[in-house]
Amino acid sequence: MLLPLYPSRESSRDAGGGAGCLAGAVAVNYDLRSGRAVFLKNTAAPEARADAVYQKALASRVSPTTPLPVPPLPAGFDATKVSSAFLAEHGAVFALKDPLQSLIPVPPAADDLGMVHVAFNQVHGGVPVYASQAVVHLTGDGKVSSVSASVMPDLTVSTLATVTRDEASAHALTAFQAQFPLSTPSVVSVKPYVFCPGFIRNDADSTAYLVWEVRIVGKRSACEECPPIADENPFLDAHGDGALVFQLSNSRQDSYRKIYDCSIYYLTDPNACWSEKVIPRYLGYTFGRREGAPARGQNPVPGNNGATDVDILYDLIGGLNQMYVEETGRNGPNGKGGAGDGTDFPFNYIASFAFHETGFPGECRNGAGAWFFPGRTEYCMGNVVPDMVGHEASHAVSYYRWDTAGNLNSLANWGDSGALNESFSDIC
Description:
Blueprint: E1 11-14, E2 25-30, E3 37-42, H1 52-60, H2 79-90, H3 99-102, E4 103-105, E5 109-110, E6 116-124, E7 127-138, E8 144-150, H4 165-179, E9 183-195, H5 197-201, E10 209-220, E11 230-237, E12 244-249, E13 256-261, H6 265-268, E14 277-279, E15 285-287, E16 289-290, H7 309-328, E17 349-354, H8 356-359, H9 361-365, E18 370-373, E19 376-379, H10 386-399, H11 415-427
Parallel strand pairs: 13-17, 17-19
Antiparallel strand pairs: 1-2, 2-3, 3-8, 4-6, 5-6, 6-7, 7-8, 9-10, 10-11, 11-12, 13-16, 14-15, 18-19
Helix pairs in contact: 7-10, 10-11
């Protein structure tokens, strides 16, 4: 089961006046955790699947594997102009005061449905906003069908850096050498971004930083031809003392499992779940298990019937991660060494919670036995079995979809996309 990041209902809102395809109300969906608008439907536009050109192409193709041709666009059709006008008209939905100044278009792309898609990358004061983008989807006749967006509301952070590019590189190199002392590091690139940790965590925190993203590759000191020990992208605050805000790992496959045991919630509140906690009253039993730690054995808490969910979960995750690397070449469920989101948990972490029902009994009684949240998975007792663990890990694969620029481009858990998300998790 995937955490419902998007509400099941649609909210209608009048976005202002206008003419033609820009007029009237739009249906808006908001992210459940952050409160930000993430999907906008132009209720006046026809459904793309009813496009006559697409239906004709579908009926005439030789076999199901034959690619559908991209239909020609109407003469004089300017997808970027139409998309920009729509965003200007409805920018208030995304809390953008001046969408045309903060959203920069890239060249349009057409698909075999006869639709055209125009992506807009968000900038603030001329600086790119990391992983922030809106995509306008248009039908072949030039009408805006919908907008899918992951953008930050109006930003106020200063884009005047007080930490120079060279100072950021020096800070990053010092930290890298401390983390990987056997490597010979070199700086590959240094880029400025506006970075919002809450945006990556998908929560309501709107704190923004001006950062330097410094990519550093560290090779083995005694082997120039060997693969690098590490390939890291630390994000350093461009204000103040250049503190580390975030770090992305590009190459490491040393996944780190942290299995949290929630069965002693009532003894340790508010620290409900532990990855390594000794409770004397239970004969020194260690609750939870971290990478490299010995098996814990049967859980001694009354009512758990000696369950070994922690050890089973530890072993299943280890085997699953190995399968991703060996069979598919994917570096863990997130493609970056584990299943972490880079904020609450490092990218190479695989954090899972066992005995979830002790702290949150209502959730386990509603019929669902496991959940995926960005950065972690949670399981009720008795549900730590291969198909459940594989299903939740596959949600991580769907969630951590990275584009060529390294930006997150997830499948939404809403409507058709949400149904595909669950289906993919069952198949994979």
